[in-house]
Amino acid sequence: MDDRSAILATVRDYWDGWFAGDAERMTGALHPDLVKRGAAIDGTLGKLTGVMTADDMTRWTREGEGIATRPVDTTYEVTVDDVYDQIATVTVRSAIYREYLHLVKTQDGWRILNALYTNVS
């Protein structure tokens, strides 16, 4: 599998795993050092939500947080914006979120290291 295909598969595991409550898929998509933040949509520029970790995301996935927030429209678009050596940047667009992801290539494959998202209003 080439890098772009592997990156897309990782992002699908992250995204689909969240909304399916599949903690195994989520864990496989995330780097153990993941840092995820959300930008507020309340008009407060620069306001960020707290830091989320790989452990948080896996636990919440297992507890069904993604299932509880699953939108009616579950379609999403993934754009691999850039791949350079062992790093990549990806944009995910959906009816519920916009996410910017940074991935790193590890011995176990591509993993999401950083994530910044906001809710789509």
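Next protein, fold it too.
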Amino acid sequence: MDDQLGGQDPLGARDTVVHTETLTRWNLTQLPMVSETQVPEEELKNQSPFPWRNDINNKVVLWKGDITELSVHAIVHSTNERMTEKSLVTQTLYEKAGPKMEAEIKNNIKVCKTGEAKISEGYELPSRFVIHTVGPRYNVKYETAAEGALFSSYRSVLQLVRENSVRTLGLCCVHSAKRGYPPQEGAHIAIRTVRRFLERYGDDIDAIIFVCDDETYTVYGKTLPLYFPRSPEEQHKVRALLPEDIGNENGEPVIPERQIRILDKPMYAQRSNDSDFDDKTIDLNAEFGKSISVGRHPFASMQDDPDAMKRLRPKSDVDTRKEEQKKRYERMLKRAHSEDLTSIARLRCLYRTGQDKFGRPVIVFVGKNFPAEAVNLEMALLYAIRLLDPIVDRDYVIVYFHTCTDSDNLPPVSFLKNVYHVLDHKYKKNLKSFYIVHPTWWSKFATWFFTTFTASDIKQKVHSLKGVQYLYSRINPDQLDIPSFVLDHDIQVNGPRYFVPSEEGATEEGL
């Protein structure tokens, strides 16, 4: 490797240099404990879409570390369209590469669009080249577009790998948390794209190193066996864990609803002998294997079942988005029941208590107990889904205590938007009331802004209450588990007892 890259480390003793020969290949990575139950030979013979291949596994490395330290032919740098990403990795990259790289980017590359990749010299880095690419910003409403753009980023990188005869590659996680892309979903696209690439061009590659940080290393460690099983037994074990969409032959996400082809002429056949129509067939959707025959007259041969015809028609973008959202929620629900979420539960920031005066279950969220800056927000969302899913099929109530919260307890607005769009429709439909206790002026403004421009369908269900006694008029005290610091704060602000206007005659709809 040293001979290939110039004979010596470009940085000398100044920085650490990591050589690929020192990294453990995936086929030699320790397998999990093997069950004593033997898998029948017949089942092992069942072909998996990602069968065990030791030769491919020998070209893959999972590594946690600084990508700028890798002595490889090329490393991948995830940036923004103007190549000015404000991140620690970018800053380190430019510092180690020296001013010549910045000059090449500024004068020659200039811009890299989302889904594209551009290559530059590595200059003073241990790597010969740096491949710059731009991953998409994630929005659940445009999940399909984000998946396509992310695949395009990885595909563009791998195309440059082939064009420049790169044999060893350090591949970072292009799907960054900064751009809101869920780590798990991004890992599936990244890993299966590499798998398909190695199946076709593996002879031209010596090693592809998945470079991770503390957070993504765990995600990749769980996802890699699905696409790179290390034994026939592991292949059999993980097959059931593969997602519904495993991509096409290149790893690209597939949307069956949009695979529509029109064959021959769309409606009428050409006249023959000035009188008759030739029999033609229109293939509306190859996936269904059904067709409509058009004979001598447009009405000569019609589908017997009109409902079947409707099912063959392409779905609208709205219907497609709804189906995609439902599938994504189901995937997250499945993860919520498989992940270890005890660390989130211990926070006691979200829990179920009793019921309100109309028998509706009550969920309590304690803002002060939520360490938004430190907690894994994705795990927090999974915990919320696990807790709420069993009760949101009917009317329910949420009580949010904003008591004594500060900036460290407030999650980013982008995360709240993502949560709102990820949750199934039943969450919004069956939410009866959302009470905010001890609101501040700022929280009232933020709530108004969010419910006006993002969550308008729950705007009328949100109510600010200045004290706990106002909550008692809706929910009996014995049905509420309230932290002591909330009650102490309430006494300091409102006094030990204060008058609450009677709500006699109030109806269930009014509350």
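About the second fold: The chain has a mean pLDDT of 81.
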